[in-house]
Amino acid sequence: MTTAVTSSDVAVVIPVRNGAGAIAGCVEAVLAQEAPPAEVVVVDNGSDDGTGDIARAAGARVVVEPRPGVYPARNTGIAVTSAPIVAFTDADCLPEPQWLRLLVAPFANDGVVGAGGDILPIEVRTAVHRWALERELFSQRKNFEHGFLPCFATGNAAYRRSALDAVGGFDDTLISGGDVDLSWRIQQQTGGRLAYVPEARVRHHLCDRLGPLLRQQRRYAGGHAVLDAKWESDPRYRALIGTPAQRMRAVWLLPARVPYRLAARTGVATPVIDAAVRTVQEIGRRQERDRAAEMSARTRRTQHQPAGEKQLS
Q1: CA 119 to centroid of chain Cα atoms
Q2: How many domains does the chain have?
Q3: pTM given for the model
Q4: Does position 313 have pLDDT exceeding 50, yes or no?
Q5: Is residue 122 part of a domain?
Q6: Which of 105, 109, 161, 183 has the highest count of CB atoms within 10 angstroms of its CB?
Q7: Which residue spans within 28-172 are E strands per DSSP?
């Protein structure tokens, strides 16, 4: 069954914290769409650099979510809007003029509960930029073809409000990986499907130096560890995540890859960055698992304490 859907059926939610240098460009790009949305909401997540005032001056409705985290902010954006489709992008993204018109088109099919488009770099200038492009760091095609279930990064995604309501929105206990988790829960709990629309593009500011990239990847890896805990009971997911040794393959192969790249005159930045990223990802994954295990042990100890000891503690 098909139902006509237009951008007037869409609310765009943009979470941001201290994005004074980027938010105006993002809001202006959303408002300049060939088919503008019914609502544009910026959720200010504790900025102290005037981000909210800048977003308001650019034409967005601004609401504040004091709880830290992008997922509480996105859930607040869902709650304060009313359009039947909610589209998401990030403050450091610039949607192309046709973005929203193309992104919402698949919702004409009633079986589609979510859609995502491509996330492309704004510029490719540094070795880290080139690595991200070569490794398809933000590839929505790869996300859509995920071996477990399709998923989308919320830098460029939209969902039916009914589907978001059915699963309770984003898991706001997560620090990272909540967009993947949302995609999977929506498909499992609603039976709907996702649609990939590569022509619905946003341009994204990538990390341009190794230090920020490694910090980002370490944070993402913590989210992966939480996803592991939530989803590894499914054998399909467990088969995909591999072992630490398998995930560290880029490190073990580095001594062979560097001479090969030098001989081929293709440069050594890519294998070196591969090894560095895999190392911090594994560190982040292990740290999050250790943190979760400690919290679980602390909870168990508290539960088994006599009532009098709990009061003293």
Answers
A1: 11
A2: 2
A3: 0.88
A4: no
A5: yes
A6: 183
A7: 39-44, 61-64, 85-89, 93-95, 112-121, 156-160
